[in-house]
Amino acid sequence: MSTQPVVVRKVMPVSREEVFDAWLDSEGMGQWMCPGTVGRSEATLDARVGGGFRILMKAAEADYLHTGEFLVLDRPSKLQFTWFSPGTDQQETLVTVEIHERGGQCEVVLTHERFPREDAAERHQKGWGEILDKLAGYLDGKRDDFRLAYEFAAPVDKVYPQFATRAGVRNWWTVFCEMEEWVGGRASFPFPSSDFFAVVRITRLEPGRVVEWEVTDSKHPATSGFVDLNDWIGTRIRFEVEQAGEGRTKLHFTHAGLALKECLGVCSSAWAFFLNQSLRGYLERGAGQPHTK
Asked: Where are the domains positioned within the chain?
């Protein structure tokens, strides 16, 4: 067994949280976990300590299956997981990803150890370098996202259901919401008197942490003047919550892809109203302002 671990470093002009979350985003990982001739990957992740993962790297010449188990998930500073692959002779190796603050940027330090052979370590040195380069490019491209952050005087267990359940969404966004409350389920958000609607597929539910939707259908009113009335389709909406003190919760909201859309001005104002006024009103005073007409 090789005694020399592989260590790869990469400085990225993004936050530590963005890098950490990318490692647990199965959809996004398919675009950057692609070393060498790999064109895309298919990832299935059980994002919890003790949870497993399966990454199928698809290259022109063959598919390469990688599996492992998460050992440490310490957001936003560290991930650690076992790693089995054809390149390690299906023997258990160990990968540690450390994410350090570097003055408005972050440095990713990836250490891969326990290789069975020196040549396997050399190949992985090159492969992980390519992967981190592609991760940096992928995250830079996500700067097209629209983001908001708010802190509420309410505990996490009260905030999280406002995004994960039909009853919750009806408290602050639209009372006409219908939702299948599981990953892969469909949710619809009509605003009848505004002549707007959105339909999503629920892609992520991590209780007390993250809710994510992918917009599969939407339409702005014809009176909006927008050229593309369906420009929400393909965008992603993510709600991330974390405890911010005793009985307080911080919300990180992302509408991925919205920043490049012609509706940005109207939609950003609407999101700010519904989250900072309507949702806050419900959480802190028991009275939201959802769409009711």
From this structure: 6-143, 145-285
d(CA 203, CA 211): 8
Q: Does domain 145-285 have CATH number 3.40.50.300?
A: no
Q: Choose the CATH number for 6-143 among 3.30.70.1450, 3.30.390.10, 3.40.50.300, 3.30.530.20.
A: 3.30.530.20
Burial annotation 38-72 (CB, 10 A radius, 16+ → b, else e) = beebbbebebeeeeebebbbeeeeeebebbbbbee
Which of 42, 39, 12 lies closest to 136, judged by CA? 12
**The pLDDT of residue 274 is above 90:** yes
Average pLDDT, the chain: 93
| DSSP H or E segment with residue 282 | helix 280-285
Integer angstrom CA distances of residue 288 from 95, 173, 237, 278, 279: 46, 8, 20, 4, 6
